[in-house]
């Protein structure tokens, strides 16, 4: 199990090594934006602040978006504890 912290809400939940970040949030009754759950709508897009994720199928992100830490929560499987942010950043 890995622990995921959401910013700025501070909500936290656990995700098993085979679940996506979104599945973990929904199972823990933590509100998480989502619609299609198949990596198509981008509702679940958020930024990885700390930690690593992997994908069964790489989502369509540009190199720049990957560098900025954007992940598709409905596709991303944690490889470590994570901190994930929905805050807009002024850095980019
Ligand atoms: S919920 Fe649609 S891309 Fe993740």
UniProtKB/TrEMBL annotation:
PROSITE patterns: 2FE2S_FER_1, 2FE2S_FER_2. Keywords: 2Fe-2S, Electron transport, Iron, Iron-sulfur, Metal-binding, Transport. InterPro entries: 2Fe-2S_ferredoxin-like_sf, 2Fe-2S_ferredoxin-type, 2Fe2S_fd_BS, Beta-grasp_dom_sf. Its cofactor is [2Fe-2S] cluster. Residues 2-90 form the 2Fe-2S ferredoxin-type domain. GO terms for molecular function: 2 iron, 2 sulfur cluster binding; metal ion binding. Belongs to the 2Fe2S plant-type ferredoxin family. This is Ferredoxin. It comes from Enterovibrio coralii. The lineage of its organism: Bacteria, Pseudomonadati, Pseudomonadota, Gammaproteobacteria, Vibrionales.
């Amino acid at each position: 199990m890995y622990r995921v912290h959401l910013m700025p809400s501070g909500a936290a939940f656990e995700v098993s090594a085979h679940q996506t970040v979104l599945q973990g949030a929904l199972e823990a009754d933590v509100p998480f934006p989502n619609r299609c759950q198949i990596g198509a709508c981008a509702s679940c897009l958020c930024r990885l602040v700390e930690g690593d994720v992997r994908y069964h199928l790489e989502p369509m992100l540009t190199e720049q978006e990957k560098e900025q830490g954007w992940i598709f929560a409905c596709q991303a499987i944690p490889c470590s504890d994570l901190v994930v942010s929905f805050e807009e950043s002024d850095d980019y």
